[in-house]
Amino acid sequence: MSDFVQHQSVECYFESSNSWVILSPIEQSIKKKIESVGIPLKDWDIQINYGIKTGFNDAFIINTEKRNEILDSCSSEEERTKTAELIRPILRGRDIQRYGYNWANLWIIATFPSQHYNIEDYSAVKKHLLTYGINRLEQTGKEYNINGEKIKARKKTNNEWFETQDSINYWEDFNKPMVVWLELSDEPKFTLVQNMIPLNTVFFLTGEHVIHLLGLLNSKLITWYFKNCIGTTSGVGTNRWLKYTIEKIPMLPYSKNIEECSNMLVLNSSSKTNVSEIEHHLLLDICIGYGLTADETNYIINLNT
Fold first, then answer.
1. What pLDDT was estimated at residue 264?
2. What are phi and psi of 290, to 5 degrees?
């Protein structure tokens, strides 16, 4: 046993009160370079928010057939136009892939409280929502007994019965290019979307150089850093890509090459054309940017993450 310990031991230096990890010498060197070159994501001009909660998905999330039915029930062309703008495509966590997504043709009735909608201007939407019963939709937290059936309203808020549960003061961000990702995932699944609304269990990032950041977040190097240096798990081994941990990642300063490679991966996400070649080129650019040696770069390339 003593011989094993002598040959397998690794010296680690814990020089501060910050959290620590046990790494091999080459891993310690890679970690140090990432942290010395990178800028923590929280210090970038970005915003990270959580996807929305409706409080009652059955009423507020609809398929394309129901959307068309609601639009056809509008009392005027003006109402139809306004209603079409109100009903927005929604993205769930399960729809997200790496650099792409599979939209499930689902929509959300986006009556965000921060927008102060008048439901009387949306008669077709009102009619649809009321099929679920106003007692179930109101946001009082009350319980009712209706015809022998127990009905519980949504949790108590100051919002109206026809509004979503969250206020969504950041609603304008949904019109911007944004990086979205699933909270629980073994591997990084970051992609780029615009004009879609993420559902809860999905985080999204808007702001400065989002395509550059997308390439970094999906890269093998940052995946290694996240898993081994700062990440948390669900308790059964699945990684939790939470806001407060994502914000700690030291991001390589903006690079046009990285942005262009990332954009190419987004454009080729459905066809898979030359994806592995583009990703390899992207990873090399990232490793060079962080100052990794050839041995350190090969170490990351050969990892089974």
1. 95
2. -85, -5
